[in-house]
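so im writing up the methods section and need the Prolyl endopeptidase record in one place, dumping it here so i stop losing it
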Amino acid sequence: MGVYQQYFYYTRTEEGQQYAVHCRRKLPAGAGLPSEQDAVDESVPEEVLLDENAEARAHKFYMVAGFQESPDHRLVAWGEDTSGNEKYTLRVREVGSGREVLSQPIPDTAGNFAFANDNRTLFYVTKDKLDRPFKVWRHVIGTSPAQDVCVYHEQDESFYIGIGRSRTERLLYIHAGSAVTSDTRYLSADEPLGEWRVVLPRRSEVEYSVEDRGNHFFITIRDQERPNSELLVAPMADPTATQVLLPHREAVKLEHVEASQDFLVSFERREGLQQAVVYKLPGDGGMPTQLGEGEPIKFEEPAYELSCGAQGDFGSPVLRMHYCSLRTPDQTIDYNMATGARAVKKVQPVLGGFDPARYATERLWASAPDGTRVPISLVYRTDLARLDGSDPMLLDAYGSYEMPNDPDFRSSRLSLLDRGITFAIAHVRGGGEMGRRWYEDGKYLRKKNTFTDFIACAEHLVAHKYTSPQRLCIEGRSAGGLTMGAVVNMRPDLFCAAILGVPFVDCLTTMLDETIPLTVIEWEEWGNPQQKEFYDYMKSYRQVGDAAYPHMLVLAGLHDPRVGEFVAKVRELRTNSNLLLLKCDMGAGHFSQSGRFDRLKELAVEFAFLLKVLGMQDVPLQPSGPAAAVGAGDK
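--- predicted struct ---
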């Protein structure tokens, strides 16, 4: 949700409906800044811009990407995927009349696009035959898509591109990036026919992102000498004339910055935990040459997730954030950077009389074989956990692409917690929780650190009596599914059961086939097995052998362009008769079903599997709060 000049834009869901409804309300003159209002005036008529439920009725699968309004608020554009193959058809509709304004919808886009300030020029991205976003096109509304002009073509097959609009609404950006290298081009949003310019030239293994303010850029940059990134400032007239504003720090990962007219916020990680630090900028809009003492925004729980929300007008002093933990539902928090005042604007509702005081969350540290300390986040019901080694547990991990697997809240998870099952996350190397070196220590020829970190976390939880091998279940999705496939081969004795969601289990075969989507760009994550050292290393962790495997549930999607399965091989070689189930969704892809209730049905299959293998089919939900009559969670 957000306020943009004349309107308050938001999405909502309706009881019994699968998908979101995109809406807005007009703001009265002098309504003030976004978060100075306690609530939107509901006496002002609501305008429905897009009801995804109505659009989805004609399709078995439906997903929206990139919904946005034109600068003059007359048009809305969105991409829709009706098969699960992640190719989006671009549609544009006139607000009020509902009239489709494109002469024909534009198929096979990447699902991101941006309006120029003339309100009739729309830039969008298309994919190549291997699903790589590789071209940016300029479309003028009212003309045929056949007349669209390609304004940028990324020739390097290891790079993906995307387009966006700056918060100042002055510039459009084309961002091009591989796994380790990136660059950015910019264009005045007032001059859609103008020349795109490069901010900083592309250099191998240098990544950067850009924010603009006044006549200068803030550039967050990472390279080999600055693996955790530092913040630069440079004049737009010569972006290469950079100065350091926030220097590189070994113990702090700078993830990104959020710029507004008078403030700069750095989102950082220390010891794996996120924080936001606020800096005051010169009031005249001039380019700062140094930053004063920053003010951290503090949170008290031992493990949590913090993210930057959708921001309002560039001149607003209000920073919108989202905060949650394994026991705290998502909170939308507005922080006034001028006064330090903090207000919780919205709390995710949880059905069933949920009482967060009945749950405890902890942060533990396991020791990997090489001595590296690996963080673990966990949550349990305090009145149900015995902590004597007999508690059932579900341990989750990801560990790839420098993507953090942060301890977030999910109300559906209460269905497990309220039966006495502990939930934990192993923040293994290869992810982004502990800085760039943490990621690099879990990729290429060090990928096995991801797997041994996970095993170390499992052993730590067993040794400290949070669970036992007979009660420990594990799960991972996509690249996290690769981790599950590896660890059940390395230590099948350590786990009771494993859930592998659309698992990337045959990394070697995939990386050898350049005709498969994502292969070339993924070489910078896994290595190119056409080189012998990478081939031998990948082969060493893809082995399926004669073993007494734990119970396994493997989930797949027919339209998934990413993964194959290894179920047949396990079925052939295993030495026991534990459950081995393959569920293939014939109407979805890598991201499973798109409807919120359909997703819950798949989750119900996973939970039913866990309860069965743990012998807990008859264990009832224990209500979390005094008002609960039928149990907690949105089951």
